[in-house]
Amino acid sequence: MNISVIGSGYVGLVTGACLADVGNHVLCLDTNAAKIERLRAGEIPIYEPGLDTVVARGIGAGRLEFATDAAAAVAHAAVVFIAVGTPSDEDGSADLSHVLEAARELGRRITRDTLVITKSTVPVGTSDRVREALQQELRSRGVPHRVTVASNPEFLKEGFAVDDFMRPDRIVVGLDAHDHEARETFRQLYAPFNRNHDRVLFMDVRAAEFTKYAANCMLAVRISFMNELANLSDRLGVDIEHVRRGIGADPRIGPHFLYAGAGFGGSCFPKDLRALIHTAAEVGEQAQLMRAAQDVNTRQRRLLADKIIAHFGGDVRGRTVALWGLAFKANTDDVREASSLAIIDTLLQAGATVRAYDPAANETAAAALPGRAGVTFCASAQAALQGADALAVVTEWLEFRSPDFDALAGALKAKALFDGRNLYDPASVRKAGLAYYGVGRSGAGV
Fold first, then answer.
1. Do 334 and 360 form a contact (C-beta atoms < 8 A)?
2. Are residues 393 and 271 in the same domain?
3. How far apart are CA 59 and CA 98, in angstroms?
4. What are phi and psi of 237, to 5 degrees?
5. What total of structural domains would you count in the chain?
6. pLDDT for residue 106 is more than 90
7. What distance in Å separates the CA atoms of residue 253 and residue 261, rounded to the nearest whole number?
8. pTM higher than 0.85 for the full model?
């Protein structure tokens, strides 16, 4: 099948590369000429494990191409994905300008019946606006071609995106129930990823758009709920890890997304919470639970900094904090709304200096904190410890999971470790002579 993907960012690139990997001929379009040149050379502009291999395989086989020419992308295929960004606007709503401009661009150039698939995360009703934008352009040209608009939201986890696409737990498709031709196209498109079980969930377009937001907001609420329990656990002398295992064993609850920590970030959860809260307000709903999850997370992102400042009696002037982990989660270089940025800013404002290290996100973090005096980005975890009073572990990278606590005790002048992901056994840390601070772990070992 010939497929075009408008947008070669995180979602568009993964989508295009994976579809090409199973035999389709895919052309990925982007307006950023420098990015397209890098992609043609096999350079991946984002850190995503396994993606470089899939892209190289597609380019080598001649099934994956990259272009800046919209006319070429439209001419290439009768199946077109829109996978452009929908960043938060100032009022919290999703900025749909890129999506609607992509639709208009398609409408100016379509020369045959086309299936247009919205892959971007968009509010309920966006597909109606995409369809209208397309139809306006087609009417102005006097073109009679039939254009079908469908919603096919992505459910990719950063760090596991290739595997998520290749082995999906569900494939949500929003489509007119009477459009049997488009339904068959989707079945053919996703057949290689759907061999053992029928994971394609057909529904109406608005339900598909809403499902994406509902899924992310449900997970965000779950994380904030656990973080609120963890903060209460600290007050009550309870180990939240025991509580997590106890409630996670209940099959009605399950173990996933029950880990307390330093808050969530990234490109999805914070943005999608804001967008759904804004949508709710537009139709007269308060979205109280989602607002609470947002408020809890705002506080949680600076929790570790507050613990560090409190440990030093409220005064960290002249103190140096080593910080391990800048990405919002492991296996990505994404620092959008990462807890590390809130922690660094809070510490710098309080007069401390920070020596930070991340296996993949040093450069993206430096770009997100331009001109911040007092923060140094280090080449290794060990280098970050040089001259440090305390260590804060913010991201759960594998290389941080089993440190030598005796060596840490020797390196840290104030002998304090702040575990923002509850990676360590408090007793082992304390045995090495380090003060241990986790999230909801004041009762650990009691």
1. no
2. yes
3. 27
4. 70, 35
5. 2
6. yes
7. 19
8. yes
Strands (E), 61-196: 64-67, 79-82, 114-118, 147-151, 171-174
Same domain, 286 and 378: yes
Residue 26: both structure tokens together = 């895919």
Radius of gyration of the chain (CA): 24
In a domain, 394, yes or no: yes
Is 170 found in the same domain as 79?
yes
Residues 147 and 149: their CA atoms lie apart, in Å, by 7
Asked if residue 369 and residue 245 are part of one domain, the reply reads yes
281 and 194 within one domain: no
Residue 172 in contact with residue 208, Cβ under 8 Å?
Answer: yes
208 within a domain of the structure (yes/no): no
Helices vs strands, H then E, count in the chain: 18, 14
Q: What is the mean pLDDT of residues 38-46?
A: 92
Write the CA distances from 394 to 208, 263, 326, 444, integer angstroms. 34, 10, 7, 20
List, by residue number, the catalytic residues.
268
In whole angstroms, give the CA distance from residue 275 to residue 278: 5
Rounded to the nearest 5 percent, the helix, strand and coil shares of the chain are 45, 15, 40
Residue 445 lies in a domain: no
Cα–Cα distance measured from residue 18 to residue 41, given in angstroms and rounded to the nearest whole number: 18
DSSP symbols for 56-86: HHHHHHT-EEEES-HHHHHHH-SEEEE----
Task: Check which CATH number belongs to the domain holding 136 and give it.
Answer: 3.40.50.720
Structure confidence by residue, pLDDT tens digits, 200-255: 999 999 999 999 999 999 999 999 999 999 999 999 999 999 999 999 999 999 99
Which distant-in-sequence residues (6+ apart) come within 8 Å of 241 by Cβ? 422, 440, 441, 444
Average pLDDT, the chain: 96
Give pLDDT tens digits for 326-377. Answer: 999 999 999 999 999 999 999 999 999 999 999 999 999 999 999 889 999 9
3-state secondary structure at position 226: helix
| Domain, as residue range, for 115 | 2-203
CA distances from 30 to 7, 13, 143, 239 (A): 5, 10, 25, 49
